[in-house]
Structures are given as structure tokens and as C-alpha cells.
Amino acid sequence: MKIKLATIIIAILCTAGVAQAADQYTKYQKVGRISTNVETGGVNVAGTNGGWNASGCLSATWAYAPPADADTKVILATALAAQASGRQVRFYGDCQSPGSNYFVIRYMEVK
What we know:
five-stranded mixed beta barrel, 6 strands, CATH 2.40.50, single chain
């Protein structure tokens, strides 16, 4: 019984560590292109210097705010303001999938 309990606790701790490791920051850069999808409501943001270079998502050229997120319009407005003022941004989130072209935004920072 003690061995099973210890195994379960270790499994939970290991799983929690993996979930936290998936979220990461992108590098700061200026906003290049912004695209929206009228059908789905999603927002895509590309930087001026190529990919966003998050450590686990090096191939991602687009930061993506899914339409289901409540803050998608806020992300769009902030990206447009940053683009217009020439300010740099970075995102916190994770890859849509390994090798994906999209980095899913959890939140955004303006420098």
C-alpha cells in the first residue's frame, strides 16, 4: 500500500513538472504582420525578425490567440497598438504541437 501511494505521488509530481515546462516565453520583437480569421475569430501575430524563438517552439513564426479565449480581442488591440507605436512584444504560452508554425498565446507583454 505504501509503495503504491509513493508511486502515485511521484507520478503526480512528474506530470505537474511536465505541464509547467510546456509554457514558455518568446523573445521580444516588434510586431510585423497581424491576421484575423473572420470565420473563427482567431488572431495571428508575426514578428519583424522571423520566428518567435521560444525554446521549445523554434519553428513558430506565428503567435496565435485562439477564438475561444476571452482575451482574443485584447490581444488584437494590444498587438495593433504595439505595431503602431513600434514597441516590442513577447508572448507566454506553448507550441500548438512539436514542429508547429504556431505558438499559442497565454498572455502578452509590451516592452
